[in-house]
Amino acid sequence: MTKKSDLMPGTLDMMILKTLTRGPQHGYGIALSIKRASDEVLTVEEGSLYPALQRLLLQSWVKAEWRSTETNRRARYYTLTAAGRRQLGVEQSQFETMIAAIGRVMQDA
Amino acid sequence: MTKKSDLMPGTLDMMILKTLTRGPQHGYGIALSIKRASDEVLTVEEGSLYPALQRLLLQSWVKAEWRSTETNRRARYYTLTAAGRRQLGVEQSQFETMIAAIGRVMQDA
DNA sequence: GTTCTATCCATAGATGACCTATGGATAGAA
DNA sequence: TTCTATCCATAGGTCATCTATGGATAGAAC
Questions:
Q1: Per-residue confidence (pLDDT) for residue A109, from 0 to 100
Q2: How many Å from the CA of A11 to C1' of C17?
Q3: Which H or E run contains A27?
Q4: Model confidence band, residue B1 (pLDDT cutoffs 50, 70, 90)
Q5: How far away is chain A from the Cα of B20, in angstroms, using its nearest Cα?
Q6: Which residues are CB-contacts of A12 (< 8 A; sequence separation ≥ 6)?
Q7: What is the pTM of this model?
Q8: Sheet of A25-26, strand order
């Protein structure tokens, strides 16, 4: 089993895509969003996050542009594409299927 | 995301331990149990199963002995140990925590 | 009687996601 | 001016799982 602060493998891309449905964000902001939404249970390391964003860019599930933050710093803002939104749907339903199956295996009977 | 027939990484050991709470079983039987319990959604490949069983043996979470099956074939029967039962509890609660956290990230809000 | 399928064990090597470690840079607070 | 938080990104390692392979036997099918 994974350690407490680790992620569940295979769920990071899905969570990033989901986070971006709430609007464009830069990498650091995505990491904070996930951390806060999960009540500090999930911590996305930068060494996981940026490679993941590169993967998503390559697939054209997100696009990126350099902009300025409210605090006047340069940052790369990521936006969900239409394909990314479709992909999110696919990953969500696969995830649900998987979790439901594991639930059946794990139930007492 | 993982493919449909794949496992969710990090959940195999937990499912094996859970399966063994229903009594000793040989490797092949464990794989079938998981497949059936999950309504054929989860397929444990032999290349995943036997290394997993070696891990569990090393940790003394299961023990093994050679016996004969009902159909007269030699097979290695795996039994859950007390430590294995404790470990199952740990993994289950970590899993629940993780799934709950992912659920919060994935909920529309 | 032999071929095929299901049952059974196990390892080697590849893949791929994630983590650790590292490096760089700036804004604003102390 | 030093420290912390904010921001980006890559290289290298780890580890779980999969693919591919190899071996062996029981019983059914033909």
A1: 67
A2: 10
A3: helix A27-37
A4: very low
A5: 11
A6: A44, A48, A49, A52
A7: 0.92
A8: A25-26, A74-80, A62-68
Judge whether residue A47 contacts strand D, using its CB and a 7 Å cut-off: yes
Take residue A85 and report the two structure tokens written for it. Answer: 């939104």
In 3D space, the residue among B58, B48, B94, B93 whose CA is nearest the CA of residue B78 turns out to be B58
Record: contact B102-A11, CB cut-off 8 A: yes
- For A97, what's the count of Cα atoms within 13 Å in the CB-facing half-sphere? 17
CB pair distance less than 8 Å for A10 and B18: no
Q: Which of A36, A103, A98 is nearest to B6 (CA)?
A: A98
Query: How confident is the model over A28-78, as pLDDT tens digits?
Result: 999 999 999 999 999 999 999 999 999 999 999 999 999 999 888 999 999
